[in-house]
Amino acid sequence: MSLLHNTVVGVDGSPGSQLALAWAVAQADGGEVTAVHAIPPLPSVLAAFVLVNLDSLRAEHRRMLEGEWIATALEAGAAIDPVLVDDNPAAALRSVAKRKDGAPIVIGFQEARRWSRHHVGDVANRLLHYADVPLVMMTEQSEAKALAGTIVVGVHGLVTASHEPIVWATQLATERSLAIHIVSVNQPSTLTAGYGYPADLYEADISAVHQANVNTTNALVETLRAENPDVSVTCETLEGHPTTMLGETINGLNPALVVIGNYHHTKLASIATDSVARHLPTMVSCPVAAIPAE
Fold it and tell me: What Rg value do the Cα atoms of the chain yield, rounded?
């Protein structure tokens, strides 16, 4: 079965969710798209506090979910399974994806719902922390059309540490007759000390590290070409800040999809470190798929 044949999509009537639904439908090719709408506990409690009938509230949300929110997809002949869940959106999407045999989750996000223009938003951030399935994030500039052209695999550091996203991208490229372009970024680091020695006695050879990355990436490309002769595989190896370099390179390539690794940073670590998965989707104009990785 194709990797994107069956997907789970967050739906709430917003432009971002409509785009995510349309994109998932474009990839389904006869498969099923599960449209999930979540009613969070807090709004439900507030509704009860102001004497709003919760059954009526759920009925209204279900009416919209099974009607106007999926109407365009139904008109396109897509198989849509609308699911209403009493839970927060991220937890609802995770639970439904698990019931659907680990189907990828597709979501959209809007400027108004993010505390920073370089942050994907609360739902996407929660899914990046906890989801163990591929997460496809749509920007407002993404196009809802079937994949065609090139997939870019963004790698931070040695490609040997990005096994899962490369395997996933290769399978998708094989299924959809797509090309793969691997962009590996090595971030130079200045070591202040190593193994107890002062910094002036222990200096990292950055050029040697970069060359090792080049050699490893080239070797991987040759292996992928040999194992997948029908897939065009190219690569480039860069030095610099991973998110910035990947963003600039991807925008210059204009790919159909970007595939990156999702390494499940803890909440504290994600605040202190730069997670490519949390920021890159806001910097490019195509969908970004974050694949769970070790």
Answer: 21
Domains 1-143 and 147-286 fall in the same CATH topology: yes
83: tokens are 């699911």
Closest CA to 159 of 206, 204, 221: 221
Q: Does CATH place domain 147-286 in 3.40.710.10?
A: no
pLDDT at 118: 53
Distance of CA 206 to the CA centre of its chain: 30
Report the alpha-carbon distance of residue 21 to residue 288 in Å, rounded. 15
Say what the pTM is.
Answer: 0.86
Q: In 3-state terms, what secondary structure has residue 161?
A: helix
Digit-coded pLDDT (tens) for 92-124:
999 999 999 999 999 997 654 444 455 577 888
13-32 per-position pLDDT tens digit: 999 999 999 999 999 988 99
Q: Which CATH number fits domain 1-143: 3.40.50.620, 3.40.30.10, 3.30.2090.10, 3.30.280.10?
A: 3.40.50.620
**Domain residue extents for the chain:** 1-143, 147-286
Q: Which residues contact 114 (CB under 8 A, 6 or more apart)?
A: 120, 121, 282
Strand pairing partners for 194?
A: 197
Q: Which two tokens stand for residue 262?
A: 């999702």
Q: What is the pLDDT of residues 200-242, one digit of tens each?
A: 555 556 677 778 778 888 888 899 999 999 999 999 999 888 8
